[in-house]
Amino acid sequence: MAENGQAVPGSYFLYAPNKGAPVSFAIWFAMSMGWHFYQCITTRSWKITGLLPFIGLIFTIAFVTREIGAYHYDNLNVYLTSTICMYMAPPILELAHYHIFGRVCYYMPYCSPIHPGRTLTTFGALSSIVEILNGIGVAWTANARIESGMRKVALALLQASLIIQIAVIGFFVTMMVVFHLRARRNGVFPRNVQIPLYTLYFTTLLILIRCVYRTVEHFSNDGLGDKANIPYAQWSPLVRYEWFFYVFEASLMITIMYLWNALHPRNYLPENFHIYLARDGVSEVVGPGWTDNRSFFVTLFDPFGFFSNRPKDEKPFWETDGIEPKMRLKGIV
């Protein structure tokens, strides 16, 4: 590991990567991947957590190639594969969070700040933008044949992707807080909703910490390829010392993966997304589900339904199930 902060000539990592840590993390991610795959099969939760085993695979590839890079740190293809996978996985992990939150909203639709299906389409579209910027940015910054001007563009793309990630996380947390406050106000906040929601809060915080770390890293160095005229000792410690990567990225991501193994959403939420918790906080009802007759592109740009053609006097399905809400029942008693 780059413990002394010294550059290694010819290394695309700038230092000689540790030879033991990538093996450990590759094994841990592979084990979590296998566990998630098993859980998806046994609990039939592919629609909720199907992305998690895929994310585990990406992280496993990232650390396997990083281990190869520890011995061949001058191999550009190995470096690119490891780095692209490392940047690709966190946004997809965020997308998995949107899936889980969407299922929480399906279960308590009267608390949802948005059509549950829109959590995937809207946030998923934003994640796609992040992935595209990440892929181009990483590939260009590592390509020594690219001119200095294009390298600066690549750095700007990486910086933009990280800023977008942070902004999307802020928006996502706002949605969760709105849901949380509505649940408290309605007096309906059962344990099987609390656990997934609190887990989402914590895992989203870990992703945010990782994004802040990466953002500070890129902004503090102004592009790895444009520092040739500055003494390496003056570069940011975030680049010169490898332990920052393992503390603020690798360890956080593996924590998230195993948290979802231990607190799997299907242990708390029904398989059928048409099943929702009635407003009395006790009865589970099979409802008709959410309907939105607008086109995909309209819902993509108007996820909150501001321009919906639905009649204003039409009651949502959870108000027509004949079950009195909990707060009203308290008033009667």
From TrEMBL:
It is found in: Membrane. The chain crosses the membrane at residues 20-38, 50-73, 79-101, 122-142, 162-183, 195-216, 243-263. Keywords: Membrane, Transmembrane, Transmembrane helix. The keyword Membrane applies. The keyword Transmembrane applies. Its main location: membrane. It holds the Pfam family RTA1. One of its GO terms (cellular component) is membrane. InterPro entries: RTA1. It is a multi-pass membrane protein. PANTHER family: PROTEIN RTA1-RELATED, RTA1 DOMAIN PROTEIN-RELATED. This is RTA1 domain protein.
